[in-house]
Amino acid sequence: MNISVSRRGFLKGSAAGATALFVGVNAKGVLAAGSSAAANTDLNPFVKIDADGVVTVIIKHFEMGQGTTTGLTTLVAEEIDANWDSVKTDFAPADDVRYKNLFFGAQGTGGSTSIANSFMQYREAGAAARDLLVRAAAQSWGVDASTISVENGIISSGGNSGHFGEFVAIAATLEAVEKPTIKTPDQFKLIGNEKLHRKDNHGKTTGTAIFAMDVNLPGMIYAAIMHSPKFGGTVVSFDDSAAKDVGGFIAAQVLPNKAGVVAFGKNTWSAFQARDALSVEWDFSVAETRSTDALIAAHQALLDEKPEFEIGHEITTENVAPLIDGASKTIEADFTFPYLAHASMESLNCTIEPTDFGVRVHDGCQFPTITRPTVAAILGLKPEQVEIKTLYAGGSFGRRANPTADYNAEAAMAFAVSGKKVPVKLVWSREDDMKGGYYRAMSAHRAKIGLDADGKIVGWDHRLAIKSIMKGTSFEGMMVRDGVDATSVEGVSESLYAIPNQAIGLTDFHNPVPVLWWRSVGHTHTAYAMETLMDMVAAESGQDPIELRLSMLDAAQPNQARMIEAIKHVREISGWKEGDKRGFACHFSFNTCVAVVADVSVDDTSVHVNKLFMAVECGVAVNPDVIRAQMEGGAGYGLTAILRNQITLTDGEVDQYNFPDYELLRNPEMPEVEVAIVPSNGAPTGVGEPGLPPTGPAVANAIFAQTGTRILDLPMTKAGFDFV
């Protein structure tokens, strides 16, 4: 999903605070500045400077571990020449116009867009603030602005010097330039700095960082919800007799949508215990009652039929068939991919408290544009009456950006039935999280490829069956075209390879199990299928896997040229040689190119992933350390999924309960990862998700290279391998 955006993006807002300078853009899109001391100031700042000279960067994207507080702060601090050690951060309030994601047109974090959409916006905010301060200092000292220098938060000219705070009052009276001068790459001190420490390191290592789970308000009560054990079930009735014997139990109520029963307690434990003591009668008349084997079979059956949708190519699955049937060699493969849970470290939670004007939502809020109106509608409020206090989130991987704002909606319903008098904190247990749905969608692929006598592709028929994430949501208008959910086929339809006569067919699967984007969205399955198939073509035609990919990329095409560079870098750092018993894969996602070489050891059925070599081309590297961490994290998260994880159902009920039966990667299983960042001065692209897609197929291709076994049905344990 690759979206372009203009470099202008500041928007009108409002300022607060007695002695601070704020920089933003007014309603006409012109850079402006002001302070709380300035008359008639109505700005939405990205940069705040107090009287002590401390710079605070207002972060419009929430922080779930991916590094936004560091990356966005780097952009401002670079241009304003601040002292990195003293710069602070604060999360932006909910305002889906003023703090919108420029790619989405709404306030939200996702799609590996945080730095990409903010790159010029935050740099210009820093540059505008610097310009104001320089002119203020020049006026104060009676010198020409050209004689002034700024370094580490200190402004100086000749024998004059002072920190930023000394010039706030004058700067607030000046008009910002419409287009501030920004630095050229050769002037960067912070952008690209290999040793820059993360802004959230101290708080997270000392325990002072406040996560949503840490919220504890006076008079607060706790809520836990008994959800239907089968997706789509609704409450008929309930009995709370046993719950009344639980110490700290307050009350139990059916949620207004009848999707569950909420139990209130004086603490988390009493709420959980009371919830578990409830006896609920359910209506399963429209619920999912099938088991996993039946669901897989239903997906595969759709592949036997004519595709519901043909994806934007002149050639269709029907007219490619003669080309493949007449080929010298054919390759056929069926893939199945299971449901997967997001399994974030911090389980879902949300606190809602009453205020004089409405309510305040305390949350690691990933998409305020969705959360705010959802909560407002449930509580009979206007969206502007819903304040959102964004806090750190302990992971998300997409789960907190639900189009239905499901857990925020549950918190609002719990608050509503509680009487709206005191703060209510909804907490999901790990078991709630594992069984609660909104999984990576189950999917099935079927591919048939024809090769000529020279091993070249003459036709490629690729069919997919998967439930749409976007249809029926507020994102449908943006992401669904001609009936096709772009996230269902991305990675196949957007492949960089020059594949002749490729037909892509999609059929939507329908059932009550709720699905959601999961780290790297559609690329989680499409990359695995595509890169396994490419490896099969290489093996069948006797070509080196890397040379085959290079032969199908055109250096005259910008993104393909970037991929070529990534491939060459990973080939160099890994020492790849033709005939190696290793695995290779590469993939383009979120406008970023990643290439991976995997070294594995196989002893009978025991597999250990020894090392991953990764090369990433993601434009200018704002924070190299963060980029490497995201590549490593994406690889580890991806390995967890492909090796052994799956969410399975028995008669419609989820089998997995907690981490013992949805086991994450353990420390000894995590391979060494060597990451090469391809040098670039291009605009930054995504890094939070692109490391995941090629990791799985690289490992699978390495296993094939050593054993001759193709793994097409995930997780890999289904092929009889154990991972140690």
Automatic annotation (TrEMBL):
Aldehyde oxidase/xanthine dehydrogenase a/b hammerhead domain location: 206-286
InterPro entries per the UniProt record, alphabetical: Ald_Oxase/Xan_DH_a/b, AldOxase/xan_DH_MoCoBD1, AldOxase/xan_DH_MoCoBD2, AldOxase/xan_DH_Mopterin-bd_sf, N-heterocyclic_Hydroxylase, OxRdtase_Mopterin-bd_su_IorB, TAT_signal, TAT_signal_bac_arc
Alphabetical list of SMART domains matching this protein: Ald_Xan_dh_C
SUPFAM superfamilies (alphabetical): Molybdenum cofactor-binding domain
Residue stretches in coiled coil: none
Record PROSITE patterns: TAT
PANTHER family assigned: ALDEHYDE DEHYDROGENASE
Name listed for the protein in its UniProt record: Xanthine dehydrogenase family protein molybdopterin-binding subunit
